[in-house]
Write a structure and sequence with these properties.
By secondary structure, the chain is of the alpha/beta class. It folds into 2 domains: about 15-195, Phosphoglycerate kinase, N-terminal domain (Rossmann fold), CATH 3.40.50; about 205-405, Phosphoglycerate kinase, N-terminal domain (Rossmann fold). Helix content is about 35%, strand content about 15%. The longest helix has 24 residues, at about 130-155. The structure holds adenosine monophosphate.
Length: about 425
């Protein structure tokens, strides 16, 4: 497999798929440029080699072409600033051949939002009133025009670099299909993508043991596939956050008004059985910090998480659970964290998530490999200042979760073959 480090971009044009889908405010100003900065090592390496770049990204969910609310032109000055070159702009991503051809070594061209074209995602834009027949025809037509769109994008460049891990779980024109137009020596991951792929590999396949996964957050239902897959891989599975109360109730506990999915009680018991059958140590909370209202200012007390008083609700784990979790985490060599232990957005219910983050940091200092991913746990490590103390913080929410579910990600497969 080709790697970006081994590739000399001198005199070459590189089509680089990035994820510049940055949050913007109402004045079209970037409110967080993390995603742009994350792609800089790749972009700078290409320019330093003497190559030129065609930068391609999506932004938001446009429904027509053009949908100027989602124009990437708004980020052009910032991209130019952080990249240190005057980046050119192609206002139509499917009509940029001459702009791409004119690029000189060391120059960069930003294409307008790929998703202005329905062909990027390969989903026909049909009226709500479309008949089944029209839908079938639309689906067929878009698959055909997607091939042309993909070939057009590929024609701009000599090589393809995918640095958009955030969209790696999508089989879109620019994230996966385009790779077929380049032979294996001329397609590769960018640095960001490479780091993500290696981190996932260290956790899911080249695993140092014991392997502990900490799954928190609100709902069991959104994490069933992940839990099922992890039960075939981990030594310890810590279940925490709102979803742990579904387990507590399934086991006969009193959970008051705590979050619970009553239609998942059976499933919780099945998962407990599956863990036993697989020899996985399933670790559940033993106490909870309960509140008399869903509020940071609520009255609180610590109780057994099987004895939540009527009218109260569990919004975080208690000190005994913190100690129990920390013990397991500190003895681990591989750690995966997805989802908080409680409503960490409220200061008074953030202690459990902080303690898990700190236990992970301690284990990492002792040589464990730790991967933190999925929106809220990333927010936790940021909030608690632990980013530098864990091994890797993933940038890809949905993509990371699908990788943990054990799925093949099209954006990775298109380059690596699996
Ligand atoms: P998820 O999106 O499923 O990863 O869940 C993250 C959300 O779960 C966060 O916004 C937390 O505030 C919330 N959460 C965690 N624990 C609890 C709990 N015990 N009760 C209610 N919400 C919770």
């Amino acid at each position: 497999m080709q790697t970006i480090d081994n590739f000399n971009f001198a005199g070459k044009k590189a089509f680089v798929r990035v994820d510049f889908n940055v949050p913007m405010n109402d004045n079209a100003e970037i409110t967080d440029d993390t995603r742009i900065r994350a792609a800089l090592p790749t972009l700078k390496k290409i320019l330093a080699d003497g190559g030129s770049i065609i930068i391609a990204s999506h932004m938001g969910r446009p429904k027509k072409n053009p949908d100027l609310k989602y124009s990437l032109k708004a980020i052009l000055p910032h991209v130019s600033k952080v990249l240190g070159v005057d980046v050119k702009f192609a206002p139509d991503c499917a009509d940029a051949a001459s702009a791409a051809a004119a690029l000189q070594p060391g120059e960069a061209l930003l294409l307008e939002n790929l998703r202005f074209y329905a062909e990027e995602e390969g989903k026909a834009r049909l009226a709500d009133t479309a008949t089944d027949e029209e839908k079938a025809e639309g689906k067929k037509a878009i698959k055909e025009s997607q091939k042309t769109f993909t070939a057009t994008l590929a024609s701009y460049a000599d090589c393809y670099v995918n640095d958009a891990f955030g969209t790696a779980h999508r089989a879109h024109a620019s994230t996966a299909l385009i790779a077929k137009h380049f032979d294996e020596n001329n397609k590769m991951f960018g640095y960001l993508m490479e780091k993500e792929v290696i981190a996932v590999q260290k956790v899911m396949t080249d695993t140092a043991r014991p392997f502990t996964a900490i799954m928190g957050g609100s709902k069991v239902s959104s994490k069933i596939d992940i839990i099922e897959n992890l039960l075939t891989k981990v030594d310890n599975l810590i279940i925490t956050g709102g979803m742990s109360f579904t387990f507590a109730k399934a086991l006969g506990g009193q959970i008051g008004n705590s979050l619970c999915e009553d239609d998942k009680l059976e499933l919780a018991l099945e998962l407990i059985e599956k863990a036993k059958a697989n020899g996985v140590n399933l670790v559940l909370p033993v106490d909870a910090k309960v509140a008399d209202a869903f509020s940071n200012e609520a009255n609180t007390q610590f109780v057994s998480d099987h004895a939540v008083p009527a009218g109260w609700l569990g919004l975080d784990i208690g000190p005994d659970t913190e100690a129990k979790f920390a013990e397991v985490i500190k003895n681990s060599k591989t750690i995966l964290w997805n989802g908080p232990t409680g409503v960490f957005e409220f200061e008074n219910f953030s202690h459990g998530s902080r303690s898990v983050g700190e236990a992970i940091a301690d284990a990492t200092a002792l040589g464990a490999f730790s991967l933190v991913g999925g929106g809220d746990s990333v927010a936790c490590v940021n909030k608690f200042g632990l980013v530098e103390k864990v091994s890797y913080v993933s940038t890809g929410g949905g993509a990371l979760l699908e990788a943990i579910e054990g799925r093949v990600l099209p954006g990775i497969e298109a380059i690596r073959g699996f």
